[in-house]
Amino acid sequence: MKPARQDIEIILEQYPRHPQHLINLLQDVQAEYSYISAEHLTLICDHVGVPVTQAWSVATFYKSFSLEPRGEHEIKVCLGTTCHLKGGQRLVEACERNLGVARGQTTDDLKFTLDTVKCVGACALAPVVMVDEDYLGEANMVILKKRLEQV
Amino acid sequence: MQRLTNTAELKVLRDNLLQAQDPHRPIVRVCRGPGCLAVGADKVSQAFQSAIQSQNLEVKVQPLVKDTGCHGFCSQGPLVNLAPANLCYVRVKPEDVEEIVQTTLVKGAVVERLLYSDNGTRYKSAADIPFYRMQQKIILQNIGVIDPLDIHDAIMAGAYHSLAKALIEMSPDDVIRTVEISGLRGRGGGGFPTGYKWKRTVENARENPGPVYIIANGEEGDPGAFMDRAIMEGDPHAVIEGMAIGAYAMGVNQGFLYVRHEYPIAIRHLAAAIAQARALGLLGKNILGAGFDFDLQINRGAGAYVCGEETAIIASLEGRVGEPVTRPPYPSQQGLWGRPTVINNVETWANVPHIIDHGAQWYADLGAPRSTGTKIFSLVGKVKNTGLVEVPMGISLGALVEEIGGGVPGQGRFKAVQTGGPSGGIIPYELKEEFTDYHFHPPDVKPADKMELSVDFDSMAQTGSIMGGGGMIVMDDHDCVVDLARYFLRFLEEESCGKCLPCRLGLKGMLEFLNNFSQGKGAPADIDALESLGKALVDGSLCGLGRTAPNPVLTSIRYFRDEYLAHIVDHHCPAGVCRDLITYRIDPEICNGCTLCAQTCPQVCITGANQQLHTIDQDACIRCGACMDVCPVDAVVVD
Amino acid sequence: MSSSENPQNQVISFTIDGQPVQARPGWTILETARHYRIHIPTLCFHPALKPWGSCRLCVVEARYGKRGKVMPSCLNPPIEELEVFTDSERVLNVRRWVLEMLLAGCPASREIKKLAAAYGVTSTRFAVTDPEEECLRCGRCVAVCNEVVGVQALTFGSRGVKKVLETPYRVPNNACIGCGCCVSVCPTGALQKRLDTVRGDLSRRTGHGYAH
Ligand SMILES: Cc1cc2nc3c(=O)[nH]c(=O)nc-3n(C[C@H](O)[C@H](O)[C@H](O)COP(=O)(O)O)c2cc1C
Ligand code: SF4
Ligand code: FES
Ligand code: FES
Ligand code: FES
User: Fold this and answer.
1) What pLDDT digit, counting tens, does each position of B556-575 carry?
2) Going by CA atoms, what residue is nearest to atom 4 of ligand 2?
3) What residues form DSSP beta bridges with C83?
4) pTM of the full predicted structure?
5) Is B407:B384 a contact under the CB 8 Å cutoff?
6) In chain A, which residue's Cα lies nearest the Cα of C198?
């Protein structure tokens, strides 16, 4: 069970009312709720005093924000240069086939979101997959499947 | 923690801490860098903690277990280093911990099987391992040694000593002059002289009084580089101290650390370090009683490579989309909130304390004449020893890859080196003589006959590549340059902000050419068209992203035109990578009929009974490579 | 940039395509060229707006001593003794490629076809994704709504090749006051077609003030 979600008000109050905190707030809301809902986006805009259009362009520009709920667990396949050379591409495709979703998407049961990242800094062990906060080095589909069964 | 009110108190604190230390006390340093974490370093560290607790080791050997940043030799992880003997244990598993405790900590003997060995030699001391021996560690010297979460450990290693020196012995102008004379050039890729940038900023601020800001660029977007990450995770105080010195020199009261959100550990360590530095009075109001105020704030990047570009960082800090704007005005004229702003790379900041400590001349004597000091590279790809290396500038590329990196493993042949990431180029192993401008070799390395290219800003730029942030990816003959160039274009197409047309449309257009090539389509004249389009991006784009984006393509055409022609004319990918030009085949000599491939194939196009030879139906095969990845005996071959 | 004398009286002398010209302080190369009726093509520049520099059609080659640099004329002020070339090989290379790619990017735009033809670009080697597209994301509409009208009813969403002109959640924005400035500054007429995706319910407008 996840701990109860922090109230949006508490997150907002951590930052002064200034446009410079827009991105920080979006990040905290994203981390807490796994996505940014329309209602939260409006609350954030009111708090930092920017038009919704600005928040919209920011939320769609940066890759770490999602406007739709994401899965309970995140699988991030590294597609940095080294991982690419060592077969990262084949690994994502295998994941796509196995989970039945394209990269960037979430499984229907909201259990997994499949995504790619550009280098997680463990190139020495390419290809690398991250399952939530854990790294899997020298990964392949067999290792990854085993790991996914555990979560 | 007691707040330090003057520089003398810092010295007293350091002396007291050093005195309290028992030089004979064993220290176990477990690497918790990203590479080692990926292979289970946290379990090793836990195993040490619990083994030591449960065994209630005698007072005599009360070992100190430290979780440290990256030890550098990532391909051998998890790494454990034991002081005082400087023993380096490699590939340590939690099960090995008991033996290490019993043998090494209790009896003082060595666990031979965990030592690094190569060509039959076992290396007892880390200092003897060729990978480490040829390096010159200045920025890395504390990384992997100190506990990044304990400011006392950093202070014992000398942290903030240079800040104190700057505050009491030097005027702000002295500091700037020292940095200028040292010849330090920006480590973020461009190699802009740091001291000059500082000087200009101060001049601009004098003309136009008001606040000045400094920013550490920790975005590290190059997808294959992790030097800045290692610094921020392993020695966060080096960055903080460098920034504090810079702030003193430029009269800055507020600094920002812009760190990629993919680096949560770096963010955590920096935040802890800032809090501890504040508690000690090394940040905040009236630092060390010198009447100088400076504080730092961490901002997380939000997933955009272009936010490594200076004007985009500023936009991002101001809460806007990371779209670059034209320069001039430069940030040193009008940066954050319209005020003069200095942006330096994390590694650049980490160099500053060393320059202040040892002096400008000492630094200027390191490395090559116009590229002073050392540089950290993340040496990865098809090379035996992968990890972080710090070498003096001007070392030959050959020495770096062959001697420190140990060359290409297995059957592969060393083909090229990619530096500078998406903005850099592909430098061939057989580089023409015109570039062999050669300055330096570590004393006991005899010059290699190839790759004598000197690794410094200017020589690298001559090849059409750039020094870049420090990513160095070694390629062998199983890596295709067309595919790698295509990979970088795809990366940049995704990361371009899309503001200006040459970059937004041009990357898509270049990619169309390369997609055709990788399918064996196109005509030789298309290679020239692609080159011309690349030049249009270089000249036409707004920011550095678009202006450097064609580099991987342009350098690969310059050095590997034959390989392009092989794709287009012969419809053949010499490296066996481009999917539309290869076939997978099962070697009847090797296949043992284990059926794994047939079970994995998504097309179900592999047939063969248990214990019998398997074959691939070429018409149904989509060349996904899944069979090759699962085959336990490597019977799947690429033609 | 600092000068002790009254800057209003100073002029900057330089050449464009060999012709001696003089710029007032604050003028860009483009403004100077226009003053002398020297043609430089533009798409994103609009005299009422801050130059944004997205189309890069206005590039010129500026030589100073031995160094030559290709730069957008709408953003760069001239300096004394600069030699500017509006039609050098490097300039034409950028312009032709941008135009050829625009033919594929905005295949429905007649303005762009005309402009491309003027540079001898009549066909494109690149793939057309949307045959109806006219918008080149030059940013004029966003800028006018923000800088001049002061409403910020429309913006760009996403980035890179996916960059698109839109309103939050892609629903008409009630902040829009229906002034039509965006339509009038659009260089290709693309906004005319999509005005209804921006303009909200006229009776529920929340914008400050009304143009008409
Ligand atoms: C597209 C692009 C990406 C960049 N990414 C980084 C980066 O990840 N890290 C970095 O330090 N500098 C990066 N830079 C360089 C910075 O813009 C800037 O030059 C640098 O931080 C200046 O610091 P330095 O003088 O210490 O190198 C990037 C530049 C461009 C154009
Ligand atoms: S060059 Fe690319 S990243 Fe830079 S401003 Fe233009 S579109 Fe954006
Ligand atoms: S490339 Fe995958 S971890 Fe660096
Ligand atoms: S991560 Fe442990 S050595 Fe680099
Ligand atoms: S008119 Fe100058 S960039 Fe568009």
Assistant:
1) 999 999 999 999 999 999 99
2) B543
3) C15, C63
4) 0.92
5) yes
6) A53
